[in-house]
Design the sequence.
């Protein structure tokens, strides 16, 4: 008898496996191999998070991940109602997470630290609901630990309950990719280990799914096929890693960098919510320090990076403005109660009230975005641009523009012109300006939080002394702060401290966000309207004639002080760059032009003197056509290439699976093995004692290919049992044709009989 699936005697290892597998909570060695793959994959994620050092002394994540994997494994193995299992598992998860998080809280005992954890999480939730800024690190620690546990728990549960490796890997992959993208912005060794473990886990799960099908259909396969497949998968993965490693400067190649940026864009995209709620965590070098959103947290230990952001044509080095902030929260700044107005390209964003200020000049700059953006940069207070934009101004007053933002956003390579208003007032003019401030200024730019310590105001009064005017007081405070050392490595304020108070009385030094915030707040305690302005400083060393390259490390902030009849005047309390004051930020006037010192905005600042970026006047600048940069659709190209690679990989894996175990066969024997396999997939597998002809008489009618099944059975019997010199019952061409017909019929039948409720033919 030529049985299709000859009975094999149980080996000792099979008997041991059968004994081990009897209790449902224990696993076979193959299941443990799968668990090892999951363990490698998720430990790589945990190590990546720990190496990122988001916060000092952050509790380890590896124990949380391992705990989640073990609890998920047990939950998948026990046979209780799912609701009960998940509730019990989540209760254990809360205990694991709470134990890890309390290590970061304040207190001498576990009970004290748990109570502090609860109170700080409640306070953080109030900050979330009030749309404020938080500088407490503990909520971030709690979220990282919680997400790590849930990702690990879900992984082993879906692997062992649903045999779905993709649902296991995707959450962990998102966590790792977010961590890498936000922390360093480039792949790490942990990412390679994760990809290695994930691909091995997918291969293991696929093989185990095939094994279950083979056992169900009584298809024999090698006893240690898992080890053979593991060796093959391991070799292929090592080869892929080796090829990627040997590629010259692969991580710096433009195409690779663009593809990586496209994948990580959801994480590296500037998020005001993330910065607002987790402002005191470190290492966000992938993002810009100032993103010109509605919030500006005062961070510590800044690492700016040197990525090129803009190319700017301007008359001389100085500061270019992105936005300003009016409300101080104690840990940062926010923009409050602003009205948004759409302004078509070529129109003035500011209303005619801006023309009433004295001693101001209009300056045009030309900006090319080297990185996707939305903010419109300007020299001084923005007035207009040739790019259709949204103008943000104090609620109820269009005469002052706090920010311009491109309505459609700016793509890499887009070029626009902007017109700004810069003060050229002399110190004598500003000293005589007085303090008759308009209502819209005092209502908005004297705000202080109730929690501001009184000693900040006392320090401002001490420094200002017997100042004879607001300008004199501002100059004294500016000079005082410029005596404090510049240090970008200072820490952020603790979660229960005011940032300005911490800067003045504890740090006594820092960088521009600290210095500018301190001056703005100190002036407000004296009743002098001021606001924080942010943007970039044009570096003379990074320019050629009138063209400057702006990088991440050119980020800057300064103070704008309001003077009646003269408008906003910049001051710079940070000692690393030139001081401000009445003459502007660069000596005799920042971006000083030669036009009428009392311009009429209706005439669009008709003459721009001393500077020609290819534009003769402001009217031409505002009405010039925006220059878009039309790059090839790289994202689409990378997506298509990625899809093609994935298709090739799937085809290769399918072919490898299809031919698995058939390497020692040829001719009719190989074709017979293939149709056997297809018959098993189509639920037409026979019993072990069935002869080839009996199989053909059963399968032939079920597939409506009786003759093809008979030809295949005769060809196999002749190849297996016939004499070498005896003629074959059919020609090779006839056998091949019969094989193709029967194969196609089984392929069509297989998915139909596998549908739930479909009866087997």
Sequence:
């Amino acid at each position: 008898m030529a049985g299709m699936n000859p009975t094999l005697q149980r080996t000792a290892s099979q008997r041991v496996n059968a004994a081990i597998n009897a209790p449902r909570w224990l696993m076979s060695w193959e299941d443990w191999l799968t668990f090892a793959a999951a363990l490698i994959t998720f430990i790589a994620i945990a190590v990546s998070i720990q190496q990122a050092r988001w916060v000092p002394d952050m509790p380890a994540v590896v124990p949380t991940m391992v705990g989640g994997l073990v609890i998920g494994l047990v939950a998948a193995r026990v046979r209780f109602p799912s609701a009960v299992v998940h509730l019990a598992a989540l209760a254990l998860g809360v205990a694991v997470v709470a134990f890890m998080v309390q290590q970061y809280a304040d207190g001498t005992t576990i009970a004290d630290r748990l109570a502090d954890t609860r109170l700080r999480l409640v306070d953080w939730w109030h900050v979330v609901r009030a749309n404020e800024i938080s500088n407490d690190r503990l909520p971030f620690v709690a979220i990282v630990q919680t997400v790590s546990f849930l990702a690990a728990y879900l992984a082993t549960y879906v692997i062992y309950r649903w045999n779905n490796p993709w649902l296991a890997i995707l959450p962990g992959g998102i966590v790792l990719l977010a961590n890498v993208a936000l922390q360093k912005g480039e792949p790490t060794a942990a990412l390679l280990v994760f990809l290695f473990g994930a691909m091995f886990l997918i291969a293991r799960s696929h093989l185990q799914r095939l094994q279950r099908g083979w056992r169900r259909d009584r298809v024999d396969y090698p006893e240690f096929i898992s080890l053979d497949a593991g060796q093959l998968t391991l070799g292929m993965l090592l080869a892929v890693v080796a090829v990627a490693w040997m590629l010259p400067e692969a991580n710096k190649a433009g195409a690779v960098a663009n593809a990586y940026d496209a994948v990580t864009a959801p994480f590296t995209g500037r998020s005001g919510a993330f910065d607002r709620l987790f402002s005191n965590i470190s290492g966000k070098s992938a993002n810009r320090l100032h993103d010109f959103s509605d919030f500006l947290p005062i961070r510590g230990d800044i690492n700016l990076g040197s990525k090129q952001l803009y190319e700017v044509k301007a008359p001389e080095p100085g500061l270019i403005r992105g936005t300003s902030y009016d409300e101080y929260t104690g840990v940062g700044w926010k923009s409050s109660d602003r009205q948004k107005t759409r302004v078509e390209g070529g129109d003035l964003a500011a209303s005619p009230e801006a023309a009433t200020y004295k001693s101001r000049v209009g300056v045009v700059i030309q900006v090319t975005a080297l990185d996707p953006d939305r903010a419109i940069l300007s020299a001084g207070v923005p007035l207009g641009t040739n790019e259709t934009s949204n103008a943000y101004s104090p609620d109820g007053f269009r005469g002052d523009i706090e920010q311009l933002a491109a309505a459609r956003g700016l793509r890499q390579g887009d070029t626009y012109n902007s017109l700004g208003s810069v003060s050229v007032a002399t110190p004598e003019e500003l000293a005589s300006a007085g303090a008759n401030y308009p209502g819209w200024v005092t209502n908005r730019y004297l705000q202080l939080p109730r929690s501001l310590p009184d000693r900040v105001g006392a320090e401002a009064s001490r420094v200002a002394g017997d100042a004879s005017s607001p300008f004199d007081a501002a100059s004294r405070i500016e000079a005082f702060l410029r005596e404090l050392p510049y240090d970008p490595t200072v820490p952020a304020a603790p979660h229960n401290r005011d940032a300005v108070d911490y800067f003045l009385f504890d740090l006594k030094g820092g960088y521009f966000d600290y210095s500018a915030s301190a001056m703005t707040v100190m002036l407000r305690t004296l009743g002098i309207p001021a606001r924080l302005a942010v943007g970039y400083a044009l570096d003379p060393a990074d320019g050629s004639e009138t063209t400057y390259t702006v990088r991440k490390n050119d980020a800057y902030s300064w103070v704008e002080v309001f003077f009646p009849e003269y408008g906003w005047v910049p001051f710079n309390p940070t000692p690393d760059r030139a001081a401000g004051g009445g003459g502007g930020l660069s000596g005799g006037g920042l971006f000083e032009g030669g036009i009428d010192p009392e311009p009429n905005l209706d005439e669009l600042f008709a003459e721009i003197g001393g500077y020609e970026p290819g534009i003769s006047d402001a009217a031409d600048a505002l009405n010039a056509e925006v220059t878009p940069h039309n790059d090839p659709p790289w994202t689409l190209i990378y997506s298509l290439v990625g899809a093609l690679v994935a298709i090739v990989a799937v085809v290769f894996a399918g072919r490898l699976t299809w031919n698995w175990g058939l390497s020692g066969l040829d001719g009719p024997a190989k074709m017979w093995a293939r149709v056997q396999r297809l018959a098993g997939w189509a639920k037409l597998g026979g019993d072990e004692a069935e002869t080839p002809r009996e199989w053909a008489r059963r399968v032939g009618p079920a597939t409506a290919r009786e003759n093809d099944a008979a030809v295949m059975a005769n060809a196999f019997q002749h190849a297996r049992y016939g004499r070498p010199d005896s003629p074959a019952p059919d020609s090779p061409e006839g056998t091949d044709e019969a094989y193709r017909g029967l194969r196609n019929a089984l392929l069509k039948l297989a998915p139909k009989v596998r549908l739930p409720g479909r009866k087997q033919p």
